[in-house]
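INFO batch 0412 | record 1 of 1 | parsing
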Amino acid sequence: MDKLINDFSFGLFFWQTLIFVGLILLLKKFAWKPILDAVNEREEGIKNALLSAANAKKEMQNLQSDNLRILQEARQERDAMLKDAREIKEKMIADAKNEAQAQGLKMIEQAKAAINSEKNAAISELKDKVSNLSIEIAEKLLKDELANKESQVKLVEKMLGEAKLN
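INFO prediction complete | emitting tokens
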């Protein structure tokens, strides 16, 4: 360091200072402004990017809340539709049961009516056959009893004895 102080030259110092100041002025005029502009521009870009990111984050939160709300509404609609479908199904089943019961009762009534009519027809037919058979039997008995004159006279006397005259 002593050597630097001993060899110190004011002329050299002057020229070095002049060149240094000239270099600073040249840098300020041509380099500092573009560098500072670039730095400022980058700073603005970073600020804008951060603002955009914050806005995007807010937008994402809004979208998520909207999606949750829409999803909740869709679930409520689905539940309501399922409830309506169950009610319709139960009503259809109840209606079908009621209709089936009504049809069953109607068929039972028709069957009872058919059975009664068949029964009455059978009884009527049986009465006809019994009466025809009774007539045929009576006819044969009367033919046998009235075949001779003696039995005819006995029958007439018997009937006259049974008949009461008023």
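INFO post-check: The chain has a mean pLDDT of 87.
INFO record closed
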